[in-house]
Write a structure and sequence with these properties.
homodimer; 147 residues; mainly alpha; two-stranded antiparallel ribbon; 2 strands
Chain lengths: 147, 147
C-alpha cells in the first residue's frame, strides 16, 4: 500500500525531473535542424519502423491533420519519405530516411551523454535500482494509458 | 561505473516517462482555466513564495519579456498579483492569490491521484526504491544545471 506522503514525493520528483529533461532536451535540439515535435515523431519512427499517419498521430496524441503538416515539413527537409504499401497501395506509411535516422541517433546520444554525467556519482547499486524502477514505472504508465 | 547499456535504458525510460507525464499533465490541465506555462509559473510561486519577474524567468528558462506577458495574463485572471517590496519599493514581486493557489493545489492533487493509480501494483520495497532514486536523480540534475 502506497502512502500519501510517498506519492507526494514521487509526483514532485517526477514533475521536476520531467521539466529538467524537457529543458535539457530543448538545449540539445538547438544544435540540430529539427523542432521538438519533429524530435518526438523521429523517435517513434526510429523505435517502431514505418508507421501510418494514423498510428503516428495516436502515439503523439495529435490530430491527423496536425501530424500531416508535421510530416509534410519533415518530408521537405528529407528527414522522412512517404512510401506506399507493396500489397495495398492505398496504405501509405512514413519511412525514416538516412538523414532523419542520423539526427535522431545523434540527439539521443547527446541525451545519454548528459545522463551519464548526472549518474557519475551514483553507486552501482543505485544505478541498478534506478534502471529497474524507471523501467517498471514506464511499463505501468504504458499499460495504464492503454486502458 | 555506469555501463553504456544502463545509460541507454535509463535515458529511454526517462524520455518515455517524461512524455507520458507531459501528456497526462495536459489532459489534467484541460479541466482547469490555466495553460501549461501558467501551470509551471504557479508551481514555482506555490513552492518558493513571492518571486521577482527575473527569478521566475530564470526558473522557467524564459526571457523576462515572455514572463512579463505571462504574469500580465495571470494577473488579469486574478491568479497572481504584483506587490511592491515594503523596504525597497522599486522591487516588485509576484504573489500567488487564493484562486491561483487553489488551482495549482487541485492540479497537483490530480497528478498525485494519477500516480497513485500507477503505483498500486508496486510492492512497498519498489515504492521506497523509486522514491529514493527519483529524489537522488532530481538532486543531481538540479546541482548539475547550476554548474
Amino acid at each position: 500500500m502506497v502512502e500519501n506522503q510517498q506519492v507526494e514525493h514521487i509526483e514532485k520528483s517526477l514533475r521536476k525531473v520531467a521539466e529538467i529533461i524537457k529543458q535539457k532536451g530543448r538545449v540539445i535540439l538547438n544544435q540540430f535542424p529539427i523542432t521538438p515535435p519533429q524530435f518526438v515523431a523521429l523517435q517513434w519512427l526510429n523505435e517502431l519502423g514505418d508507421m501510418t499517419i494514423g498510428d503516428l498521430s495516436t502515439k503523439m496524441y495529435l490530430a491527423c491533420s496536425t501530424t500531416t503538416d508535421l510530416v509534410d515539413r519533415m518530408e521537405k527537409n528529407e528527414l522522412v519519405e512517404r512510401v506506399k504499401d507493396q500489397n495495398d497501395r492505398r496504405v501509405v506509411r512514413i519511412h525514416l530516411l538516412e538523414k532523419g535516422e542520423k539526427i535522431i541517433q545523434e540527439v539521443i546520444k547527446k541525451r545519454q551523454d548528459y545522463l551519464k554525467g548526472i549518474l557519475q556519482n551514483f553507486s552501482d547499486e543505485e544505478i541498478a535500482f534506478l534502471e529497474k524502477s524507471l523501467h517498471v514505472l514506464h511499463q505501468e504508465m504504458e499499460s495504464s494509458s492503454k486502458e
